[in-house]
Design goal:
The complex is a heterodimer of chains A (278) and B (318).
Chain A (H helix, E strand, L loop, with lengths): L1 H4 L6 H25 L3 H4 L12 H11 L2 H32 L5 H13 L6 H10 L7 H4 L6 H14 L2 H9 L4 H30 L2 H6 L8 H10 L7 H29 L6
Chain B lengths: L21 H36 L2 E3 L5 E3 L3 H8 L1 H32 L7 H13 L2 H11 L6 H8 L11 H29 L3 H9 L4 H12 L1 H16 L3 H6 L16 H11 L3 H32 L1
Antiparallel strand pairs in B: 1-2
Classes of the chains: A mainly alpha (278), B mainly alpha (318).
């Protein structure tokens, strides 16, 4: 806290500029809420009415009539949770092996992990779709979930995190006690790096909740849609009501905003520690 | 972050002494492979194999039912002669420049302001700049689309107040590119500002204090301390947004609902990834779509090489 006391007084214009920047960050979300609560006659009026209306339930009802939106939110939740947990586990295991175990080929395999981080696998989407259809996973949630476990950057980060958190002395002490590698991982290492793994899982959750292209290709029937794909379906029925897609977007964003209230600070910390690659 | 591409970060250690019997020791020796197996198995099936298979599929006329004819390099010669491909390359490049350059400059400025030692409510500001990042690209596009609507959009209302005519942004090349660039900027500026801020905080505060004592104002501190200190992370974010720029898809797909797969009747904002989607999944030409995938791969490799050269040059200078 001594840090805060040092340095010069912050000029007022700095606050002004930052406030404007934050207002721009919030405005589209606020506007989404305004339109989602206003009937279309009012929402399309110029000059724009900047206060929320009382039409939210009507519009939300219309959203539910057009696409199975509650189902879509549940699907999004299932997919995002599974991917978050899956990434955290897969990356903790591999990160542990690369950080603390030695085995032939470790160096080469880790170089492969690092190299895969740079290639966006999205460009291979056609063969990916072929594999999913071979597996019979088209239009299933696992078709979205299982490929989502692959996160090379997560392994890179967990490895760094484990190197920084677990000392070699601790590993040796555990080994002297006669613990097997698995026991060392599960009883000693994992409890200590759990905050890091949870952070990774949170980023995985947010990413999966917002992902569009892959679910859009894999999921075909409306009752399998994620919230993001449901927004696209609402957009197609734009002639019903201009505010429909806006209401859908608001409903699809709200859960993450609520989550953000609780974990936003940790996400900020995580990004500043380099836990996520955009 | 330049270390990411540096294999030397891996350190070698001697193997631990085995405990217990021979079977136990064999199991212990194999254990590490068990820990990395889930990743490598999944990566092989859903990453590496599809990547390599893209090159193979690109040599065929291939439709989703599985009918295929070998056509050699035909798909590639077609691609090089296809004005729609070059249009998509231009659009992707234009959107990338329009979004990346102002975005990173603005992020630098925001990071510099957030780095003030006695800034109050800094936690609030940091969280606020990250709000766009948790908003999905889909929702972002819907809102921005509404804001720039020709008849009812707020942006056009402002233009009207200024005495200008309404603009149909999605109809023109520059209008649609600016719109997509604005969405990308909105979503990623705060995230990049936090990355820059993290690097700035690793700098000793005394440097700024000394500069202030010497009479250097905000601007000179920014030019002569902030920017040089951030060079490695700037390279990282440029590479990151280049690779992200090559993947822009959802914004383009959702911007013009009436001609979604081409982002407008004249393909005015069809990006490379959207072109791949249109050919592969809109027209069921898996072979031709894969050739577009190969072209994207080449661009990613070029980006990575340029990055590598930049990083090794900046290391040599030190």
């Amino acid at each position: 806290m001594t840090r805060r006391r040092s340095g010069h007084r912050v000029p007022l214009w700095v606050y002004a500029v930052l406030t404007v920047f934050c207002a721009i960050s919030y405005f589209p979300l606020y506007w989404m809420f305004v339109v989602a609560t206003t009937d279309s006659a009012t929402a399309t009026r110029l000059p724009p009415r900047l206060v929320p209306g009382d039409n939210f339930l009507d519009l939300a009802g219309l959203v539910l009539e057009t696409v199975p939106f509650v189902r879509a939110l549940v699907n999004s939740f299932v997919i995002a949770t599974a991917i978050g947990v899956g990434q955290a586990l897969v990356c903790s295991l591999a990160g542990f092996a690369f950080a603390k175990l030695s085995f032939p080929g470790r160096h080469t395999l880790f170089v492969i992990v690092v190299l895969t981080m740079t290639v966006p696998l999205q460009l291979a989407i056609i063969p990916q779709y072929m594999i999913i259809s071979r597996l019979g996973w088209v239009d299933t949630l696992q078709g979205v979930i299982v490929p989502g476990f692959v996160n090379a950057f997560g392994i890179f980060w967990m490895r760094q995190h484990i190197v920084a958190t677990i000392s070699d002395e601790l590993m040796q002490a555990a080994r002297v006690d006669g613990a097997t590698t698995w026991q060392v991982f599960w009883r000693v290492v994992f409890p200590l790096v759990r905050p890091g793994a949870i952070l990774l899982g949170l980023f995985g959750f947010v990413w999966a909740w917002n992902d569009f292209l892959w679910p859009f290709i894999v999921l075909k029937s409306p009752e399998r849609y994620t919230a993001q794909i449901a927004i696209k379906a609402l957009q197609n029925s734009r002639d019903i009501d201009l505010g429909l897609a806006m209401s859908g977007s608001f409903l699809a964003t709200l859960p993450l905003l609520v989550l953000f209230v609780f974990v936003g600070r940790r996400l900020v910390g995580g990004i500043m520690e380099g836990a996520f690659k955009g | 972050m330049a270390t990411i591409l540096d294999p030397a970060v891996v350190t070698r250690k001697p193997p631990p002494a085995p405990h217990g019997g021979i079977r136990e020791s064999v199991r212990e020796r194999l254990a590490p492979y068990g820990y990395i197996a889930p990743f490598f198995l999944l990566f092989a099936v859903f990453g590496l194999f599809p990547l390599l298979f893209t090159f193979y599929v690109a040599l065929f006329d291939w439709n989703p039912i599985g009918e295929r004819t070998f056509v050699g390099l035909d798909n590639f010669t077609r691609l090089v002669d296809d004005p729609r491909f070059w249009n998509a390359v231009r659009n992707t490049f234009s959107i990338w420049v329009l979004s990346t350059v102002p975005q990173l400059l603005l992020a630098l400025g925001v990071a510099h302001l957030l780095n003030h030692a006695r800034l109050r409510a800094s936690g609030f500001f940091r969280m606020s700049v990250l709000v766009p990042y948790i908003t999905s690209v889909g929702a972002t596009t819907i809102v921005f689309g509404q804001l720039i609507d020709r008849d009812y959009g707020m942006v056009n209302w402002f233009l009207e107040l200024l005495g200008l005519a309404h603009i149909e942004f999605t109809a023109s090349v520059w209008g649609s590119h600016l719109t997509i660039a604005a969405m990308v900027m909105w979503r990623w500026t705060g995230y990049n500002a936090l990355l820059y801020l993290a690097s700035l905080q690793a700098l000793p505060r005394e440097i700024y204090e000394a500069a202030a004592v010497d009479g250097a104002g905000q601007w000179r501190q920014f030019r002569h301390i902030t920017v040089p200190a951030l060079r490695p992370i700037i390279v990282f974010t440029v590479v990151n947004s280049t690779i992200g720029g090559l993947q822009i898809f959802t914004e383009a797909l959702l911007l013009s609902p009436s001609a979604a797969q081409t982002c407008g009747a004249a393909r005015q904002c069809q990006t490379l990834t959207l072109f791949l989607y249109e050919q592969g999944f809109g027209r069921y030409q898996f072979g031709y779509g894969s050739a577009i995938g190969v072209a994207l791969f080449v661009m990613v490799v070029i980006t990575a090489l340029v990055n590598f050269l930049l990083v090794s040059r900046s290391r040599a200078e030190r």
